[in-house]
């Protein structure tokens, strides 16, 4: 049940009776305890009277978080007060870090079973009777399963970092934290064989049939120019100078062309973005898929600028912060860099 409903027992009863009456499958619910134990017992008995099959009980009140101790005695008293199963919840990390801990938590609370969340997210082998596995093994096992199920890259990265916890500061953890696709993660974990075999479709670049050099083709009666280009913000004057999008916008304005029109799509397999920009009757795109819409549009703008032989906003090779880009009167070719006054 939503925690707000704990203050509306009549509504709780109405909802549960409606569900039990109209469904052919077992109905269960989950609650937090109330500050007063007797009031919680009263609530649980009312819930039992609706005909539900079981009740999950998180042994903390609504305002408490995981740093607060779980109220074991509350769960035990509730389990003793009703005949239907009570599922104990709230013991992760403080009480539960392995399979034996789960059994102890069940016995201490007198519950019929245990619900585990945070400890399972930390290390899914918490349910393993033989004992928990090391973090590296768990991460690799998780990634192999995630790949086989075509899981989103963003979710894979999040889950792996949750499992690693303090190890995020290790050499491998830092690389995974900065990774931009599954290939980066598989490389650092030594799992490129799995990547190559099962998820070529997650390549950051388009499939091998895509153009590996500058390529022109037709799309919707427009010429489409594509380049293999990966956008790295640190290579461009994103904060102290003009961005690629600004440069192409100014070029259009100075040459009396319509403003650039961007059309950005998102790829379902890994939630990455690709943008096509229309400039002066031609469309441009990078074959690389970026992690957000802004980067995808900047990449398309850079392809446009390079295709028109215009300065694309890139910093000088020496990356001297005192160097600023100087654009020639025509705006064409690579601008030379000069020392700022």
What does this structure look like?
The protein has 341 residues and is an alpha/beta fold. It is 37% helix and 16% strand. The protein contains twelve helices and eleven strands. Mean pLDDT is 85; it is low at 201-214 and 319-341. The protein starts with 8 loop residues before the first helix and ends with a strand. The chain has a five-stranded mixed β-sheet. A four-stranded parallel β-sheet has the order 1-2-3-4, with helices on one face. It has a two-stranded antiparallel ribbon with strand order 10-11.
The best one-word shape is elongated
Beginning-to-end CA distance, first to last residue = 65 Å
Strand order of the largest sheet: 5-6-9-8-7
**Low-confidence runs (pLDDT<50, min 5 residues)?**
201-214, 319-341
Number of strands: 11
Number of helices: 12
Share in β-strands: 15-25%
Helix content: 25-40%
- Biggest sheet: strands, sense, closure? 5 strands, mixed
SSE string = HEHEHEHEHHHHHHEEHEEEHEE
Mean of residue pLDDT values: 85
Radius of gyration: 29 Å
Please identify the structural class as seen in this structure: alpha/beta
Draw up the topology in text:
Blueprint: H1 9-22, E1 28-32, H2 37-49, E2 54-58, H3 72-81, E3 86-89, H4 99-109, E4 113-115, H5 118-122, H6 135-148, H7 153-164, H8 171-178, H9 182-188, H10 192-198, E5 215-219, E6 222-227, H11 244-254, E7 261-267, E8 272-279, E9 282-286, H12 293-307, E10 323-325, E11 337-339
Parallel strand pairs: 1-2, 2-3, 3-4, 6-9
Antiparallel strand pairs: 5-6, 7-8, 8-9, 10-11
Helix pairs in contact: 2-3, 6-7, 11-12
